[in-house]
Design goal:
The protein is mostly beta strands. It is built from no helices and 11 strands. Helices cover 0% and strands 55% of the residues. The N and C termini lie far apart (39 Å).
Length: 120
């Protein structure tokens, strides 16, 4: 069973930055596709960003230009750098490991989530 652990969430003022990290205790994330989802209260869960094993990245339109997904050089950790945060970015953020079917990301394993709260 793959176990994913997120960290880096917290409370930040609008316009600030946070960096979320995701590590796997049972697999090398660099060998798999990884996606970050978020879910805000009363809203549907959405895929924020994903990164393929070959490094291709995707972002939801609302975070393009503000968020960056990346891996560290050892490919054991995946990051989500979030800049220019807005109140509407407030949500629980989940790291997932999965795969791509064509250009579509499918999640298979989920972390426990980390809360990001942006105060306006």
């Amino acid at each position: 069973q793959v176990q994913l652990v997120e960290s880096g969430g917290g409370l930040v003022q609008a316009g600030g930055s946070l960096r979320l990290s995701c590590v796997s205790s049972t697999s090398v994330l660099g060998l798999h596709a990884v996606g970050w989802y978020r879910q805000a209260p009363g809203k549907q869960r959405e895929l924020v960003s994903s990164i393929a094993p070959d490094g291709r990245t995707n972002y939801v339109d609302s975070v393009k230009g503000r968020f960056t997904i990346s891996r560290d050089i050892t490919k054991t950790t995946v990051y989500l750098q979030m800049n220019s945060l807005k109140a509407e970015d407030t949500a629980v953020y989940y790291c997932t490991e999965g795969y791509f079917g064509g250009n579509t990301y499918f999640s298979a394993y989920w972390g426990q989530g980390t809360q990001v709260t942006v105060s306006s």
